Structures are given as C-alpha cells and as structure tokens.
C-alpha cells in the first residue's frame, strides 16, 4: 500500500533540532537476490544508530528472475548505474553499499562497512535542517543537488518465488520516493516541502562529484 505524508503530517515529523550530520548509507538490494538478506539484516542493525541514515534502494533488474520486488524502481537502478560511472571499478551489483556517495563496499561485509564508516566521519560537512517550514541549507563551497527522500522504517515480505523462495524477508528503511528539490550553489538556502511518499522523511545534499556533504532526518 502506498503511503504519503500530507503537509500537515509532514510538519509534525520535521520539528527536528539541528544536530550532527548523519552519514548516508545507500544499500542497493533486491528481494530476488539470495546474497542480499545478510546485507538487509546489517542495514537493519545500523538503522538503530542515530549518527547514520541507512537507506535501502530496491533495484528492478532482479525482477525478471521469478519474483517482482514491490519496492523496486528503475529510478533506483539508474541511481546505482550513475554511481558506477563515478567509481573506478564501474561495478553494478547487489548488495552494494555506498557511503556518503564516495565509497562503496559489499553491503554484507561487516568489517569493510566499519572501515568505510570510520573514514566517512572525516567527510566535509554542510549543515542542514528539516523543519515544519521546509529545508534549510547552510552556506559552503561547491555545487550540488538537494534530495528529499521518503522511506518506510520496516516491512516484512513472504517471498513466493525466485532465489529467496519460501523466506520471509524483514527489510528496513525502504526508500519509497526520491526527489531532487533544489540546486545548491554554495549559498545558504531555504526550500519548501510538498507531499512525500513514505512514512518518514530525510534530506541530503549531494555535490556534482557524487559526494554527500550534508544530511538531516525528520523526527516522527
């Protein structure tokens, strides 16, 4: 079932105080991939940390193999392919975890994820805030895109076909929508927010080179 937040509901979940920027984790995953459940489980674990923004992007290229992932989207597959053009190895695979838009590891490799998270703590930081009045972005240097993401905290799905046939998959922070809501050119800016698909909302600033340098999470 598709859920979306009205402007009134959105206002109630965005009254979040300014805080340290969370590290953005993008897991490219699929319910049709037998290697993905361990990565999904690790993302669920990481979703309990307040210093992280873990997001599960369900790609659609596994759908042809017997099971259609209801949370998949060609838009998310395109986002992963865009990352492949930025990274030296040019790989597209599941489960792939991208950290702050600038590092990628196998999403189920706990040690590699921990190393990447430590390195990400030193990434540049542009302050952002989500409020009932919209998105606030601080001044800085460079150019980039402000992305608004709607996501669901958790879903449980019985899988009837494909590589995970017979399993019940529990998945967290499933992305339902991703919208480019503004272009940032180094100046402080304010952006309004409209309707967002998903039970929760977050925002991040991504420079033209792929690096994510700012993020904020709405508080339900």
Question: Keywords for this structure?
Answer:
4-stranded mixed sheet, 4-stranded antiparallel sheet, Glutaredoxin, 220 residues, 4 helices, alpha+beta, 13 strands
How would you describe what is shown here?
- The chain has 220 residues and is of the alpha+beta class.
- The chain has a single domain, classed as Glutaredoxin.
- Helix content is 19%, strand content 38%.
- The chain is built from four helices and 13 strands.
- The strands form four sheets. A four-stranded mixed sheet has the order 3-2-4-5, with helices on both faces. It has a four-stranded antiparallel sheet with strand order 9-8-12-13, covered by helices on one side. Strands 6-7-10 form a three-stranded antiparallel sheet, with no helix packed on it.
- The longest helix is centred in the middle third of the chain and has 13 residues, at 74-86.
- The protein is globular and about 50 Å long.
- The two termini are 20 Å apart.
- Mean pLDDT is 91; it is low at 6-19.
Report mean pLDDT, rounded to a whole number.
Answer: 91
Terminal Cα separation, in Å?
A: 20 Å
Cα gyration radius (Å): 17 Å
Total number of beta strands:
13
Summarize this structure briefly.
The protein is of the alpha+beta class. It contains four helices and 13 strands.
